[in-house]
Amino acid sequence: MRLSREKTNRLSHVITDFLVASDDVVFVEDRDTIRQSIIQALQALLREEEQVELQVRQKIGSQKREILEGTEEWDVLYRRYYAEEMRRLGVVHQTSNTQNT
Q: What is the domain partition of the chain in residue ranges?
C-alpha cells in the first residue's frame, strides 16, 4: 500500500496525539522526535508490505499455467500466499472469512 507523505505525516500526528493523551505513556524524548520515529516505522512497514506483495505476485506468476489477475482463483491464491508471507514475518493475519471452530 502506498501512502502519500501527507497521509503518513497525518497518521504520525494522530498516533502521537493518542500517545500524549494516554496516562500510561511517558515521553522521554520531545514530541517531534517521537513523531519522526513513528513516520520512519510506518514507512519501514509499508516498504515491507510492498515486498510481500511483490513476492506474492511473483509466486502466482510462477505457476505452471497462467492465472489471470482479477479471477477468483487469483484472489484465493493471493490471499493464501499473502497470509503465508505475513506468518513467515511473524505477523498474524486474520481474514473476515475465518470460521469458528
A: 5-88
